[in-house]
Design a protein that fits this description.
Length: 251
Amino acid sequence: MVSKQSEEFLKNLRLYLFSSGKNEKEIEDIISELEDHLLEAESQGKSVEDIIGQSPKHYMEQIAQEMSFDALGWMKYLPVIMIGSLSYIVLGDALRDELQYTLLELVGYPLILVLFIMLISLSFKYLAATPPDYKHWIVFGFLGVFPMGMFLGLLILNRRMETEMVVFGTAGQIAAIVATILIFIAISIWTKTWISIILPVILFVPEFIINSTSFDEGTKLTMSAVITPVLFAFFFWYLLKKEKTETCEDC
């Protein structure tokens, strides 16, 4: 098994190439071949730099330039990401009985998501090719602020511009709830993880239950502001603990 340094390099290389839109099978072939070279080199007392002969960033850029862009592969992921992301918005609005959108929103939501996906891809390439420092936290912070800022901008623009409203009735709300739930289940089956089901459960079920109670609005807002972040924190703590356990088992 390769050293921790080599394992980290391979993980970053995989992330960089995937974020660059390269073919998944070709990426795994390169990773597997390079892992064998690193394993052999480490047995002779050599390091990652001895094998690649340059900085990790330049090596990643060189490998990426030698590989073609896998447009077909990305076209497979893009619709799933778009539909999955929009499903969160639709499900939340349907559960709140607010399933109505202006034409500006119908255009704005998908556009913001496309821009955000492009930003994530560029950010992941940067994070994979540079050593961890304070700039990484700036990138993560910007990734967190960007969608909120864009959605807030869309909200303000939507209030200032009058465009036609598309309103969904009761039947439309029920259909939207059923459709989004089926989408989350399908994504879960496709990705072979429970995350796409657990996240909407954490995000919407507590809010739905709280809004069904007879508490006043202030109490409901306070409960939602506390319970949902706590559940998210517990879930991510569980994921980190599980990952550490699996890593220790592989050691």
